[in-house]
Design a protein that fits this description.
The structure is a homodimer of 228-residue chains. With 228 residues, chain A is α/β, with parallel strands linked by helices. Chain A has a single domain (4-189), classed as 3-Layer(aba) Sandwich (Rossmann fold). In chain A, 39% of the residues lie in helices and 11% in strands. Chain A has helices at residues 13-24, 43-53, 66-69, 86-91, 101-116, 138-151, 153-156, 172-181, 206-218, and strands spanning 4-8, 28-35, 58-63, 120-122, 162-164. In chain A, strands 3-2-1-4-5 form a five-stranded parallel sheet, with helices on both faces. In chain A, strand 1, helix 1 (13-24) and strand 2 (28-35) form a beta-alpha-beta unit. In chain A, helix 1 (13-24) crosses helix 8. Chain A is globular and about 55 Å long. Chain A binds chain B through residues 60, 62-66, 68-71, 93, 97-104, 106-108, 110-112, 114-115, 134-135, 137, 139-140, 143-144, 146-148, 150-153, 155-157, and chain B through 60, 62-66, 68-71, 93, 97-104, 106-108, 110-112, 114-115, 134-135, 137, 139-140, 143-144, 146-148, 150-153, 155-157.
Amino acid sequence: MSAKAVVLLSGGIDSSTTLAIARNENYDLYALSFRYGQKNRLEVPAAKKIARTLKVKDHLVLDIDLAAIGGSALTTDIPVPRERTDEDILGDIPGTYVPARNIVFLSYALSWAESLGASDLFIGVNAVDYSGYPDCRPEFIEAFQRMANMGTKAGAEGRPFTIHTPLIRMTKAQIIQKGIALGVDYGLTQSCYDPSPRGTACGVCDSCVLRKRGFNQAGIPDPIVYDA
Amino acid sequence: MSAKAVVLLSGGIDSSTTLAIARNENYDLYALSFRYGQKNRLEVPAAKKIARTLKVKDHLVLDIDLAAIGGSALTTDIPVPRERTDEDILGDIPGTYVPARNIVFLSYALSWAESLGASDLFIGVNAVDYSGYPDCRPEFIEAFQRMANMGTKAGAEGRPFTIHTPLIRMTKAQIIQKGIALGVDYGLTQSCYDPSPRGTACGVCDSCVLRKRGFNQAGIPDPIVYDA
């Protein structure tokens, strides 16, 4: 029997590649996605397709109410920033930052892992293209792991959790090359912060810009359609 | 203008007293409660009454799906343990432990605090009568605070969060005496893990046992009705 791993899966490039990496390491996969009031309503359907193609044991989709908490362009009427310069994208913490989102997501992953008897969690955070999100930094992941092992029954009883971040030091191009090598179908993935009603990616939000550049630098054609 | 504080409020003795303490320290109060699939459906109505009497600025009640994750007697068909010995109550981590529950609750409190521009969070955890819950220990709270200040925009930008745990070293009797001094109406509070359909407390679960003993030791009559 393989060990179980809980993998956070948004349906974008990074989390889909992370799921493929966990599969390649022979874990039994338990994918976790959220409907959290995000403008991108296509994320969860994309996550479902990815989870199916990568043969997860279970895929849990939780409805959580981060929109009630507010504070982000991804969940409120605050506009998603578009056509920003590189300096802007890499330099500050943007309006698309959802307060403590990865902390909430990892907390649920931890709760599910403890309930399943899993010790391994995977999250596709990335400190290279991370657009200034503090919850993508290695120091944060280490602090979360330490806290998790203090605050859970499993941790207190000597069955510690490990938070795996296989992408944390990779460029977007390297991530895409890795995923292609592992057979990820990026045509199923969704990256845009705010896609059009017919489901096409805007091409100009930070997430689209980083994705297009990643495919370009990897020398691989992006299989999805953009508005711009 | 007073500083804002987010206070986790379950509607029991500890969280209600914590709310009164935060009020006494002149914070503007933002109470946060959860419907998380707990058997005690009277917690949230109790929390609403307490929040009203303590004049909170806002009371957010979030529906979250910890029952989908399973693993606890508080949210599943696993029976709530009753009539346990003191050794049992204080010695192990009981079946009423909800995997990573306080971690999930604190993550939401952090998200809301960041959205509100609040730097102070209050949680009524207690390391004396804590029934072996790992997420009530001071080391855990310190680790959570550290993680929160690594993983949030506010923390990264030098506006750190403080997690206040005013009850952590108090006995239940001391907590009750403090609350009475601050005018908390414990007749509005709900402590039972699994109350009867008509709303009375069972009197024999760990939570009822600790509550009854606390009032007894404080020399104060408990204003609620018990089945046993």
